[in-house]
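TL;DR need structure tokens for one chain.
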Amino acid sequence: MFKIAMPIALAGVVAGAIGAAPAQAQDTVTWRMQALWDANTTPQEFEQRFVERVAELTDGKFQIQLFSGGQIVPAAEAFEAVQGGAFELMKTFDGYEAGAVPAFYFTSTVPFGFETSDQMEAWFYELGGLELARDAYDDFGMHYIAPSIYGEEPIHSKFPIESIADMAGQKGRFVGLAAQVMAAFDVAVTPMATGEVYSSLERGVIDFADRGDLTANYEAGLAEVADFIVLPGVHQPVTATGYVANQEAWDALPESYQAALEVAAREVSGALRQHVLVQNQVALENFQNDGVEVLHLEAEDIQAARPTAVEAWREAAGDDPLANKILDSQMAFMKQLGLL
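>> reply
TL;DR here they are.
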């Protein structure tokens, strides 16, 4: 059985919730969950740890049957499926729905925004971000349980990029808010599915690309088609995926089961982040052993680019009240951190 040492504060949450539960035994509950990831991948292994931890915290009475991305419904239909109650829980990247719900741009990743996972996690848990994310889902009959937060994704390039200006006029693959922000730097943005990145770099359809984390990108063979890695990943410096449940299913849970979901989500988020941190170093060494050169953007260059990014953030938020409320909250914290 997978175990993670439970932080004292979080242990108190579960203990308190369980202590407040009725004296009679809780009923057994079974949910279905569709994740984002393919089977037999590292992120999916951590989703398995999540469902095992929920079962452990509830003495085996809350069982979640885990499915890989697209296994129940196509990934693009998961939002509507959970909304309609076809299954109870999904792991999602809010940016996929941001075109229709601008608030989701900022609960997923903010290009040129938070620089570390701890900063974004602090916004979620200490500065009301979790409640704001839940507000964004309320209108859709869903409940945002908690995020999984991990670090940057790199840029893989066929040519050396040593400054933001070097990207202007070149063809780059980006999606979501990153597509809008990078277009503001005169990148010829070419959206495409993740699975098309390798062949598009190989054929010269694009000159550089965002794809995924370093380990996943190495496993996908990007060392064969891109000679350069550019860090930090300013287009996606921090990533948040989220556990989202059908609201009626959530409301029907005992409070102790709700707490188990919240605690397991936060524990596994930390475990995944630490794993990625370690594996990134292994992946970087593998890339370099294959002849890929790692380039680093200067901090001053990134700071000078932020005003342009801020304009793109505001444009993405448009006149949506909740999106602007979230963005204002994040920017206030960024100013305290000295990022803006």
